[in-house]
Amino acid sequence: MQNKIPTIQEIARLLKLSKSTVSRALRNHPAIGLRTTQQVQKLAKELNYEPNQLAISFSKRKSMSIGVIVSSLDPYFHRAVFGIEDCAYANNYSVLISQTRDEYDIEVKVLETMRKQRVDGIVASISRNAPDIRHFEKCRQYNIPVVFFDRVPDVAGINSVWCRLDISTIELVSYLASKGHEHIALINGPVSLPIRNERLKGYYEGLEKNKLPVYEHFVKTADLSTVGTYEAMDALLSHRIKPTAIITFNDYMSLDAMHYLRKVKPGRYSDIDFVTYSSLPTTRYLDRPPLAYVDQFPYEQGKLATEVLFRQLNGLAKAEIMPPENLVIESRLVVY
Amino acid sequence: MQNKIPTIQEIARLLKLSKSTVSRALRNHPAIGLRTTQQVQKLAKELNYEPNQLAISFSKRKSMSIGVIVSSLDPYFHRAVFGIEDCAYANNYSVLISQTRDEYDIEVKVLETMRKQRVDGIVASISRNAPDIRHFEKCRQYNIPVVFFDRVPDVAGINSVWCRLDISTIELVSYLASKGHEHIALINGPVSLPIRNERLKGYYEGLEKNKLPVYEHFVKTADLSTVGTYEAMDALLSHRIKPTAIITFNDYMSLDAMHYLRKVKPGRYSDIDFVTYSSLPTTRYLDRPPLAYVDQFPYEQGKLATEVLFRQLNGLAKAEIMPPENLVIESRLVVY
DNA sequence: CTGTTAGCGCGTTCAA
DNA sequence: TTGAACGCGCTAACAG
After folding, report:
1. Which of A86, B29, B158, B161 has the maximal Cβ count within 10 Å?
2. Are residues B186 and B277 in the same domain?
3. How many Å apart are CA B181 and CA B206, to the nearest integer?
């Protein structure tokens, strides 16, 4: 059992040097003699010396890590995490990921954990059930900049990166109109998600632009559960005038809605077209996938948000006054 | 700008106490007077004091965190991560997740990062392209126990948790046989993944048990790319005797194979049945999903692996000799 | 019940 | 070119 964890002190002792010399030699400090440097590095390698990042972080009061808070590592946020990782790793930072499972209590808790871990900054997409962002306020006191992305709270003075959907939604409606659809419904997400409004705005503007009739009963709200979608579909189809195309809040909702038609109303309505947002990688394998979707570029959002974060961190390091950054990227209509 | 991060020292100064008293009071140490405890905790709250976990970890030489290494946070490993998180959080540990993207170099690097961060233990599923586990050896020197799960290296003396597939694979073949299939093919995963052998073993035993003919050309190997699957399908269908059912390595492969039939050979072979392993949540939405799949219980594997890890950690804490644990769980055939 | 002291491993002055 | 001394924030051993 060689459970001897090597330290700089140990190397210094063996080489009869001071630990500061060793510390410098390990980092190729120019003021250290070549011979010394070489023998230090040689011994370090033999002992399998690996610097204690905990000690470094602690003494420098800088953990070289950023926290990522997302509701779930589903395929959508998974792509965002890639963007975050790519940017963080390029800056020699490590990444702490936490899932909130869309619960406010968990969000509060993981945020606290991250503060205690003294992450240098945080990239966050808020939970669906978060009524406010008070729990993020302490981060300011702890000098931990926060960048919100994708699901951005509607509050001033914060850093944010998100993807506007209104224009693409207009295009989505126009696309459906060009296919001859005149009765287009929208099943939107829960009111607690601000991004829902973009969809609604684009929907109405799209109808107007294409001179299509507006039926209030064509707009439904669903939580993101399967049952919720079924209920919305029920409500949609209970009116005299039925939709011939449906815009759903996301891919999962489209899947549930299509499943509903097949199982609950087999045969009828099989000609209803679906379009949606932020495609799952497996959606294209459906026999009859949605006709189109609006790409929200999660990878780019994650990457941009992290870039904003590093700009804030660098500003903080120089004690500069950093005004909050608010980036908006354009979504894009993709026809399968 | 109130960028004053409160410390125990600061609280002690304000209250004219020593920092050890404050430290104890904050942790409800019984030897501290009620009055003192209360006033310390009151002030701590007012100052928004949050203990510096970095300092605690450093001084205790225990980071209260475990590392998780997986190839990718795809839906499969995502479920495993839930199991890991549930167990870790229950033990007041935090979780560091790293993706290797199935590349050996990245695996080596994230492992090193975790060691430097002094995680207390690691739960890992090895990369497809990892030729050996030499890079894990240093963990022993650093007293960091490692538990491999799901993709387990074929080496003695390690902790492991995996899911045996041979018996379920026999059942899978029997199920297909019961449906009248006599020509059953298997598209297996790459040789670098040991779990592939379980499938192969079960396949042959299943054929034997059901007295089905063995055709060597019915067994193909594919890397896990779409192109690889297409090639395997090409090869399978190029023989005189065609399969009527195909067992694929996983869901993605089934999707690709089915897609191949629809796109490359439309109309023909539309009666080929598929069965697979470890279902994606969205697979059930297909018009004609695989008939059945073998559940590998990733959540349970992750949870069990983490439990093993904590047993090792507790043993280590008591300086006990901990023999490695090797758990095997049974997979289960699920018919849609 | 409370205070004093030492030390965790490292980087960083300042001094030689 | 090297070394000595200090401090990061906290816990713990030992005193009182």
Report:
1. B161
2. yes
3. 12
pLDDT digits (tens, 9 = 90+) for B81-110: 999 999 999 999 999 999 999 999 999 999
Tens-digit pLDDT profile for residues A290-313 = 999 999 999 999 999 999 999 999
Judged by CB atoms closer than 8 Å, whether chains meet at A286 and B286 is answered as yes
Q: What is the pTM of this model?
A: 0.94
Please check whether residues B143 and B262 belong to one and the same domain: no
pLDDT at A316 over 80: yes
Angle formed by the axes of helices B226-237 and B251-264, nearest 10°:
60
Same domain? For A158 and A302 the reply is yes
The parent domain of residue A30 ranges over 8-51
Restricting to A residues 62-91, those with a Cβ less than 8 Å away from any Cβ of B are 63, 72-75, 78, 81, 85
Residue B2's pLDDT is 43
In a domain, A120, yes or no: yes
* Chain B residues whose beta carbon lies within 8 Å of the beta carbon of residue A259: 285
3-class state of residue B101 by DSSP: coil
* B302 and B290 fall within a common domain: no
The alpha helices in A95-194, defined as continuous H runs, are 104-116, 137-141, 166-178
Shortest Cα distance, chain A CAs vs residue B147, angstroms: 18
Is A45 an 8 Å CB contact of chain B? no
Q: Do B141 and A288 touch (CB under 8 A)?
A: no
Query: Does the CA dihedral A51-A54-A55-A56 come out positive or negative?
Result: positive
Does B184 share its domain with B154? Answer: no
Do B174 and B290 share a structural domain? yes
Kind plus residue range of the DSSP H or E element containing A198: helix A195-209
Whether pLDDT at A1 is above 50: no
Q: Is residue B237 a part of any domain in this protein? A: yes
Residue A127 belongs to some domain of the structure: yes
Residues of A in contact with B319 (CB under 8 A): none
Strands (E), B38-93: 65-70
Closest residue to C7 measured CA to C1′ = B59
Helices H / strands E in chain A, number of each = 12, 12
Contacts of residue A112, defined as CB under 8 A and 6 or more positions apart, other chains included, come to A135, B50
CB-to-strand D under 7 Å, chain A 32-91: 32-33, 35-36, 58-59, 61
Q: CATH number, domain at A238?
A: 3.40.50.2300
Count of structural domains within chain A? 3
B72, B97, B118 ranked by CB distance to A54: nearest = B118
Domain assignment present for residue B335? The answer is: no
Q: What percent of chain B has pLDDT over 90?
A: 83
